[in-house]
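Internal tracking record. Fields below are filled automatically when a chain is submitted to the structure queue. Please do not edit lines marked as system-generated. If the sequence contains nonstandard residues, flag them in the REMARKS field before resubmitting.
Queue: standard
Priority: normal
Entity type: single polypeptide chain
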Amino acid sequence: MPFTESKVKKGTLLHQRIMNNSNVNRLAGVDISKTGISLMQKSEIDDLHVIESSKNLCDYFDEKFDIIIAGEVLEHVSNMGIFLDSIKSVCDDNSLILITVPNFAPIKRIFRLFWFNEVVHPDHVCYFSVSTLSSLFDKNGLE
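SYSTEM-GENERATED OUTPUT FOLLOWS
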């Protein structure tokens, strides 16, 4: 949680940036981490929901959303098909899904591989490239 806590304090958390720089009618946030949600709530961020990763988002929301943002989430998910189906359950035909993932091949990582020193965030389960993301989205009915 130190990354989340630091970003919340600086006001640079993606949720805060969207909240402060857009005119959306509603901005809802979800996380599986009670601690993460609690940190955000202490900073006066509302409409946050702790969810269970095994449940579908439509179990929490009765509505469809115009935009779904999953920033730096996918690399933490062990079953990406279930995750994407959950997102699709709160989308309609005109919804936009924005997903970001870390760079799979930064220069530092490439150089470390020469010394067999792979440094990976302990919560990450995979790397992504444009090709693997395209394949994942195609296989799950997303464009």
